[in-house]
């Protein structure tokens, strides 16, 4: 394919053939890339049309100083070339997918005893990449399934035959807990290891049926040999595979592989949802946003999204379902607008997702948003959080002079205190003033309770303290198996430094930032709540001690009096009949005699 150059005045000299055209401005900057079935007719339309052209298109035409064309064999080739050029150069007048993040892949390495691990970088020659996955969660679900089914190593050792033969390695914890069969010491041969890898590849490709048949056959073979423990292990793996498959939305076994694209638009933006159907199940869903540049039609916007998303997610499905008729066909693809049946239901589901995404974007943009969400969005940005921190919980300890150690947890929902969710904690397992151990206890107690009650975890945990308190809290989350599921930070008082787990260097948020002020308010509220509780506990303990010093008055009696009268002064002022109603006649006589002796001393 060779490029040719023309001036705007020479547009009538362009060939009547399919190809790609590029517009350059006076600074030789590429400002637009387009494709055409006929370059001559398409480019001419920009310069001869006087009506029905919006102001953005007129402004672009005024900037054009040079036209470059590239001839191709077909309109479909032009579409693919246009997509590659736009993705690479991102001209200012072209439609761009507002989705710049890199997506995760699972890499099956090319080496002895291959590994499977996540990555965002594709490096040629390292192995086979599967994906991309629309989210880290989706990728981890597949990775967890594979690691639950097969004993594939997670170490990065070079397991060359000669190194294994020289006994350079020793098995690690993964071997002892049953997650690895010890190929590093030669305890598992590579042929047996590769059988697991072959089955894992089927799952990575979305062919769960092959893996299910494999485990079912192994289970039956073991049962026929009366190896019932082995048969049970294969049955457990089969159950795990079926449980995973049940979580996928099964569309219809007769619907094999196809893609679904739907579009909704407003004045400035378009939102396109993509559902990828593999072996009758939805195994990927993604919604993207496109910004209109030259008053493009819905058909043009959807076609752009189809080409780019199929390229991005490596889709080769021969059939595409859409919610609107396309103005152009795509060579080699069957594009349908279904009216009834399961395929229509798929289009409706996709459209529902596109509309929901549009609504959420409107909320995030502030159409129906107030200050509290703006501050939370700022906090999300400052802390690089994946989700809006609309549920924050903050912990603080209090043990003034080492006595009566207690802790508090305050909860903020949508940036406002949720007083009913506040919690006090008496430290039970720690003796003496040990802030670190106390923090481990209370954080562990809080989230163990939430997990048992199946209540939602917060979107952000804040620890009042520096690296030490934060590390202790992280330990509690690790013990519960939820470390990494909830973002957690520590905020040190002196310099208002923000610490992240396993990072020795803090970050500093602008002192005038609304997000830092929100964190300070939450931290100060947790401190106030802890101090108030500590004072109450000290007061109650001091009161209880004075009463229990009277012979015959135990802690139970003192607690009843405290609950009813609130203070020692009110007990002394109370009539004996009133006291008798609380602790009985005999105890009242003992109490009053003891109080009289104390006042006489």
UniProtKB/TrEMBL annotation:
Which SUPFAM superfamilies does UniProt cross-reference here? C-terminal UvrC-binding domain of UvrB (SSF46600), GIY-YIG endonuclease (SSF82771), RuvA domain 2-like (SSF47781)
Q: How does it assemble?
A: Interacts with UvrB in an incision complex.
Kindly give the PANTHER family that the UniProt entry links to this protein: UVRABC SYSTEM PROTEIN C, UVRC/OXIDOREDUCTASE
State the CDD domains in the record: GIY-YIG_UvrC_Cho
Looking at the UniProt record for this protein, which Gene Ontology cellular component terms does it annotate, in alphabetical order? cytoplasm; excinuclease repair complex
Is the keyword Cytoplasm assigned to this protein? yes
Recorded GO MF terms: DNA binding; excinuclease ABC activity
Q: Which GO terms describe its biological process?
A: nucleotide-excision repair; SOS response
What start and end residues bound the annotated signal peptide?
Answer: none
Which residues belong to any copy of the UVR domain?
A: 215-244
What coarse category fits the chief subcellular location reported for this protein? cytoplasm
> Superkingdom, according to UniProt?
Bacteria
- The name this protein carries in UniProt is UvrABC system protein C
Query: Which cell locations does it reside in?
Result: Cytoplasm
Source species: Belliella pelovolcani
What is the recorded function of this protein according to its Swiss-Prot or TrEMBL entry?
A: The UvrABC repair system catalyzes the recognition and processing of DNA lesions. UvrC both incises the 5' and 3' sides of the lesion. The N-terminal half is responsible for the 3' incision and the C-terminal half is responsible for the 5' incision.
Q: Residue limits of the GIY-YIG domain? A: 16-95
Q: Which InterPro entries match?
A: GIY-YIG_endonuc, GIY-YIG_endonuc_sf, GIY-YIG_UvrC_Cho, RuvA_2-like, UVR_dom, UVR_dom_sf, UvrABC_protein_C, UvrC
One Pfam assignment: UvrC_RNaseH
Q: Which HAMAP family match?
A: UvrC
Q: Which family does it belong to?
A: Belongs to the UvrC family.
